[in-house]
Design goal:
It is an enzyme of class 3 (hydrolase). The protein has six domains: 105 residues, PriA, 3(prime) DNA-binding domain (GIY-YIG endonuclease); 57 residues, no CATH class; 75 residues; 184 residues, P-loop containing nucleotide triphosphate hydrolases (Rossmann fold, 3-Layer(aba) Sandwich), CATH 3.40.50.300; 184 residues, 3-Layer(aba) Sandwich (Rossmann fold); 90 residues, Alpha-Beta Plaits. Helices cover 33% and strands 23% of the residues. It is built from 26 helices and 33 strands. Strands 14-15-13-16-17-12-18 form a seven-stranded parallel beta sheet, with helices on both faces. Helix 1 packs across helix 2. Bound molecules: adenosine-5'-diphosphate (ADP) and zinc ion (2 copies). One zinc ion binds next to loops.
Length: 802
């Protein structure tokens, strides 16, 4: 008896384990771990992943597997193990994680077809089914009782392949080639028969007499400047033939990649790469933190580390934040490693993504460059994993499974015995702390290549502007500087931090922000109750009428939209042309890129936008970057707000003046004395780290404590609050007394889509039972969760506390 242990596509706590299914005779030698199958489940037919094949079962009458969805495994043994681990860590369902590891196309419903790839005879049984066709539906194969083992054999020896089709053949792209349909000497004869006036036709035949190989139709048209109609006439006369060839869609085919060779390394690069090379040589699963300022040459270090890995015959995974996965970035890898590189990017169509994934799956490439989910690339012999801009929050998935790519990377590295490189100019505090403790190997690259200086940062005190009678959002200094650039035909980038979802309250006279005395985060103004509340611990006070520090009455709620800024800017500088980039103007696909291109082409003087522009920022002609109100970011109700501000300021500054023209940065703020603003303007990460750690230590935040955030939502406000209260009580009862439970409190965004949201938070050092308790809580509410009334989100080590 052959039994498959299957995780079925029924995402509930009760079905989050394997079910035993009998492997029917026809599939006996076929079913393997890592394949997807369809199985009966109750009255339904569902998809499932085979985790294991065994020869006995503890259960009586087993239902048989209905069919296989893959002929060969699509998840390796390592990925199956990893998927289980990720699910356990994030308390998500196994099925969710396995799905998350695969390209989207393989999650959706699709059709399969079998394609014959050989001119030779296929075995009779298959030949009969194909009945002269090159392609047949997979369904037909099943219905006509095709022989699976035979099919598998032919797939393995490359005579047939299985194609996955998603709506209108989206997974495949064909290129049309034109080839002669006769031997060259016969073409010479044929030429005689063509009317001498049909010059165009003759020209094509003459071409093929000299060049009998197939040529892409597009190229033929270009080379001979002829038309498809002319080609078609010759095809009709049977002198030429069309060949439609399947190719991988190459999303970057239009870019030309100039091949590059390794650069001679600078001294600091040498120092950084030596230990990495050693780890590669010694097959060590060591994690390195490469702390290098922007422009220090980190990418060259990555490239030469990968070089070493390829020499050993191993593979490399490179993660970059979605938003930095620009053609320039891809070029640097393709330029060095050519067609060994696959790119996984969310802007690719599902078909393109599938093609790239297939190249990895079939071991046709050695390097993958991609966003977060590329960490699951099905390589089997990984030699290095690199995570660039490791502090970026997009490495954590914000839906289940809420995994962090860094943690998955370390897990895979320990399996493959290979190093992990985390690179950043502003490492996440947790990472730097680990490096300081020796958990990670710290590598420092403090200098820019070619000794370029960082652009000077000027901090403008907006309180002074107010006192001088300037009540606008632009300081005199900034306005003058902008006007000066425009007159010189240079460009300006103005950054307005994303408006906080909540409103904090600040004194415009002295810059004082009302904060929670227990949590050190800005209090949020609640209009309905006219109160100021803390979103972590539920501390509240009535709205203040005057500043608690200087008694001024210039108390303001904060938050201005980009549109308002644009209007004001037009008023002050009517001659400026402005491109605005925010969630409103970039909603449509591709508009982000288009706006940046327009700005790059010099179609506007000013690019105004939220922090989404901070990263695409690499324009030669930009000589001034203005940050309009750093305070909106500094006072988000998030314990990481100082860190995020420091990162943002460093990032925008590092971008200005990368080219020939020197750059300048102007930062406007009501709290110029804030250490985050001060130290970012001095590019002093080390000092920032020390001060920020001090704050984290006194208020019990990471890296001194871990956090878990529970967010409960329900259409009924009272119910959401009640459940959150019960959860806090359960946590209180079951966790050790060293854990602190904060809340319940309303979430900063208290109502989304007509659902009310409440949260509570656990601060802890070590709570080994925590995940078990979470499962129990979910179990307790399973009926309401199932009806979709209630959701309980649990986020371990959350990045966003909204
Ligand atoms: P980072 O990734 O740290 O921001 P980059 O890798 O972009 O830095 O390097 C900054 C610039 O220096 C790039 O133009 C790069 O081509 C160049 N560069 C890097 N390493 C070298 C080297 N060893 N020799 C010459 N130029 C280099
Ligand atoms: Zn004040
Ligand atoms: Zn508080």
């Amino acid at each position: 008896m052959r039994v498959a242990k299957v995780i079925v596509d029924v995402p509930t706590n009760q079905t989050n384990h394997t079910f035993d299914y009998l492997i029917p005779e026809k599939l006996e030698n076929l079913v393997q771990a890592g394949m997807r199958v369809t199985v009966p489940f109750g009255p339904r037919k569902v998809m499932g992943f085979v985790l294991d094949v065994v020869s006995e079962s503890d259960y009586g009458k087993l239902k048989p597997i209905e069919d296989v969805m893959d002929i060969t495994p699509i998840l390796t043994g390592e990925l199956l193990q990893l998927g289980k681990w990720v699910s356990d860590q994030t308390v998500s369902f196994y099925i969710q994680t396995f799905q998350a590891m695969l390209p989207q196309i393989l999650k959706a419903k699709y059709k399969k077809e079998i394609e014959a790839l050989t001119e030779e005879e296929l075995p009779d049984a298959l030949q009969t089914l194909f009945a002269g066709r090159a392609v047949m539906d997979y369904e037909e194969f099943v219905e006509r009782n095709g022989d699976y083992n035979l099919l598998l054999k032919e797939v393995r020896n490359g005579h047939v392949q299985i194609n996955y089709l998603v709506k209108s053949k989206e997974t495949k792209k064909t290129i049309r080639f034109i080839a002669p349909n006769k031997e060259p000497y016969l073409l010479v004869e044929a030429l005689e028969d063509i009317d001498p006036r049909a010059k165009k036709q003759r020209q094509i035949i003459e071409y093929f007499i000299g060049n009998p190989d197939p040529i892409e139709q597009k190229k033929l048209l270009a080379v001979l400047s002829t038309t498809t109609a002319t080609i078609n006439q010759l095809v009709e006369k049977k002198m030429l033939k069309k060949i439609d060839q399947n190719v991988y869609r190459d999303p970057y085919e239009d870019e030309t990649f100039k091949r590059t060779t390794p650069l001679p390394l600078s001294l600091q690069q040498k120092k950084a790469i030596e230990p990495i090379w050693q780890a590669i040589e010694a097959d060590q699963d060591q994690t390195f933190l490469l702390h290098g300022v922007t422009g220090s040459g980190k990418t060259e270090v990555y490239l030469q580390a990968i070089d070493k890995v390829l020499q050993k015959g191993k593979e490399a995974i490179v993660l970059v934040p979605e938003i930095s996965l620009t053609p320039q970035m891809v070029n640097r890898f393709k330029g060095r490693f050519g067609s060994e590189v696959a790119v996984l990017h969310s802007a690719l169509s599902p078909g393109e993504k599938y093609d790239e994934w297939t190249k990895i799956h079939k071991q046709e490439v050695k390097v993958v460059v991609g966003a977060r989910s590329a960490i699951f690339a099905p390589f089997e012999n990984i030699g290095i994993i690199i995570i660039d801009e490791e502090h970026e929050t997009s490495y954590k998935q914000d839906e289940q499974p809420r995994y962090h790519a860094r943690e998955v990377a370390k897990k895979r590295a320990s399996y493959h015995h290979c190093p992990v490189i985390l690179g950043s100019a502003t490492p996440m505090l947790e990472s730097y702390a680990r490096a300081k403790k020796g958990v990670y190997h710290l590598l420092e690259m403090p200098d820019r290549m070619n000794e370029a200086a960082m652009p000077p940062v000027e901090i403008v005190d907006m309180r002074d502007e107010l006192h001088a009678g300037n009540r606008t959002m632009f300081s005199r200094n900034l306005l003058e500087s902008v006007q000066e650039r425009i007159s010189k035909n240079q460009q300006v980038v103005l950054l307005l931090n994303r408006r906080g979802h909540s409103t904090f309250v600040m004194c415009r006279d002295c810059g004082e922000v009302m904060k929670c005395p227990h949590c050190d985060i800005a209090l949020t103004y609640h209009k309905s109750s006219h109160q100021l509340k803390c979103h972590y611990c539920d501390y509240k006070i009535p709205m203040v009428k005057q500043c608690t520090s200087c008694a001024s009455k210039s108390i303001r709620y904060f938050g201005t939209g980009t549109q308002k800024v644009e209007e004001a800017l037009r008023e002050h500088i009517p001659e400026a042309s402005i491109i605005r980039m925010d969630v409103d103007t970039t909603r449509r696909k591709g508009s982000h890129k288009k706006l940046l291109e327009r700005f790059g082409n010099g179609e506007a003087n000013i690019l105004l936008g939220t922090q989404m522009i901070a990263k695409g920022l690499d324009f030669e002609n930009v000589t001034l970057v203005g940050v309009l109100a750093v305070d909106t970011m500094l006072h988000l109700p998030d314990f990481r707000s100082s860190e995020k501000t420091f990162q943002l300021l460093t990032q925008v500054s590092g971008r200005a003046g990368r080219h020939k023209l020197p750059g300048e940065v102007i930062v406007q703020t009501y709290t110029p004395e804030h250490y985050s603003v001060q130290l970012a303007s001095q590019y002093d990460y080390e000092q920032f780290y020390l001060q920020e750690m001090e704050m984290r230590r006194s208020f019990h935040y990471p890296p001194y404590y871990y956090l878990t955030l529970f967010t409960v939502s329900h259409p009924n406000q009272f119910k959401a609050q009640e459940v959150t209260k019960t959860i806090s009580k359960l946590l209180y009862k079951h966790l050790s007394d060293r854990a602190t439970i904060l809340g319940p409190t309303p979430s900063p965004m208290v109502r989304i889509n007509n659902r009310y949201r409440y949260q509570c938070m656990v601060k802890y050092k070590d709570e080994p039972n925590q995940r078990e308790i979470v499962r129990k809580i979910q179990d307790h509410y399973k009926d309401e969760i199932h009806r979709n009334d209630l959701t309980i989100q649990v986020d371990f080590e959350p990045y966003s506390l909204m």
